[in-house]
Predict the 3D structure of the following.
Amino acid sequence: MPTGISPAFWAAALFLIAVYFLRRETLTATIASALVIGFLDILIIVILSVLAFPFIQPASLRYVNSPFGNGQIFNPMIIELVFGVVLASYFGHTSAGNAAKGVLRRDPSGRSLILGNIAAMATAIGLNCLWVIAVNGAIPSAELSSTTGTALSPLAAKIGGIVPILGVIYVILSMEWVRFICHTACSYRCAKRSLQV
């Protein structure tokens, strides 16, 4: 679902938004936005998964294409792809550093920070498993392996209805804008502190 808008435009827009929030020197609105966007992302993933479940074919879930089977030669690019996806999927734990200062003020033992991180990781694992089962079961493996973009395009083609609309909303919300702004603000604060020393 290409938009036809230049990637340079998106990069420039992201840069200008980051500069705007850096000039404000507060992340209160950004954190509230991150919570709303996170909730909407989770809701859309659950809705898309539930819509895909009636289309699940057991044969699609049982399909295995091992890189070592059927005389195939091992391709080391698969390892890059697997680790890239896993790291991107579970990269949210790095935002715990942003919250640590406030949480540790309220709970110096750090117990609530650790339990919050465990709950967040368990939720991420559960959502990722739900999504993989729904998509891998609903879309035939041959179609998935030939898809060059995300699994949203073949899922929208298969299910139709509101799926294309939810897919576009999900892609826009998941562009990492808020995470980028938070990381930019943290880097800015670190640089500011080190220059004052």
